[in-house]
């Protein structure tokens, strides 16, 4: 189904567009994005349509989740292509607010932190939270705001941002937000690279090298029946083979990002830099206790 | 109108009771309380009825807003009288959850702070927030949770807890919560003492002495046309006359709890202890610039 989505730039426009649907008891599905949309986002939109009568996509590059040193200014903005992709995937409404619409009086880290924000707690202090202090405060605060404005019945997030998904589930649970959260499978390029808006920063050599992240995760999975240390060793070996990669973290954890179990379902996550571009990826992994050696 | 409100103890019961009203597009008014209800709460319920088709009251003594040294354990619990007062004031539903219903797995300050909470920002660092660190984190977090569970169209809070009301308004603004906030006038005893569930802690001598708080605020208002310092001096003089009062703060501020204006509308707030009981009160105050002295 290809239709043109209706664009809302203000809260009032959004509200007016959604009021009739809400009145008619339609289920609203929501996909929050930062734009620069790709096939990964399209799959989230299609997933949302499976759970709802109408799909709303927000496009907002949220300054609160970028540290002053990060790529806020160069983050890609591609609104007209984004609207086309939304239309091709059955989205009814695109909410694309200016910064001043989301942060009354304009954004500064200081003024926002003077006000009321969402505090993400301990889960935001590890992995990406350790590398990007304050990042998840920004993510959860803006998602809470968007939930308040859209009031969706269901919202879809990619598993590619696995820690983000875990934190959004935690927010919904801990603040009793009336929205169902769906985590959707990561979409990948032919060589396994997880789709990301930041992939377009990569030069050709970096782009080729980037596929090593996914290969490292697969290598760990193949060794996971020998236990956590073997799985880690296998992934590290693959990562070390690529000189363009500067590893940020490789983490083997439980499904809820705690300590990896000696056996059973877990998660393996990686973050690395290629030049100034930071990429992340993750996968499920099934650990086993290694068989006892007969020596 | 006196009817028996329906009691909901679980999230599921609450949800089942509110679903038909929501489906029919009825406006839901909400009054969150900690129980030990008095005529002040009754006035909030009547105010809520003015703005809504049905009124929900929650009764929950929220452990997160009490410091370990505070009066959580001795805070009065009077559920059957509370239900009667709700019935006499037209309340349709009373939500009285156990601690485990609001805090899955039970409450501890550490476990809750490990999770996702509402961070109240700078406004929570002054006045009551300075005397009660963490208090407003607890208030805003539980109010956000209750808003998520009840999903009210409008919620009514007393002006007696003026800083709390200001922070709830800030939360609704900063997190875009889809609820209208109404602040209701403080109800007072015959001698001017602001009604409070904690008044029942007072022994007869303390109860008589407590009226000095209100007299001090009035004295300041009468002097406010001579400027902020004169108003403060007048209130302090009254407070000093009562030896049973141990002052926590006397604050003259703008209406949004910033610096007091030299002229125009402001607020005067007081907090004091009588024995181990901490009471607060506040009033609007109109400041003028004092006339120049001819010397």
Q: First CA to last CA of chain A: what distance? A: 64 Å
The chain pair with the largest interface is: A-B, 34 and 34 residues
Q: Taking Cα atoms only, what radius of gyration of chain A do you get, to the nearest Å?
A: 20 Å
Oligomer: homodimer
The spatial strand order of the largest sheet of chain A comes to 1-4-3-2-6-7
Q: What is the name of the CATH class of the largest domain in chain A?
A: Alpha Beta
Helix content of chain A: 25-40%
- Structural class by secondary-structure content of chain A: alpha/beta
Largest sheet of chain A: 6 strands, parallel
Task: Report on this structure.
- 2 copies of one chain form a homodimer.
- Chain A contains 10 helices and 10 strands.
- In chain A, α2 links the parallel β2 and β3.
- In chain A, α9 (204-223) packs antiparallel against α10.
- Chain A has 295 residues and is α/β, with parallel strands linked by helices.
- A 6-stranded parallel sheet of chain A has the order 1-4-3-2-6-7, sandwiched between helices. Chain A has a 3-stranded antiparallel sheet with strand order 8-9-10, with helices on one face.
- Chain A folds into 2 domains: 6-184, HUPs (Rossmann fold), CATH 3.40.50; 202-284, Pantoate--beta-alanine Ligase, Chain: A,domain 2 (2-Layer Sandwich), CATH 3.30.1300.10.
- The radius of gyration of chain A is 20 Å and the shape is globular.
- The A-B interface holds A 11, 23, 25, 104, 112-123, 137, 140-141, 144-146, 148-149, 151, 167, 170-171, 173-178 and B 11, 23, 25, 104, 112-123, 137, 140-141, 144-146, 148-149, 151, 167, 170-171, 173-178.
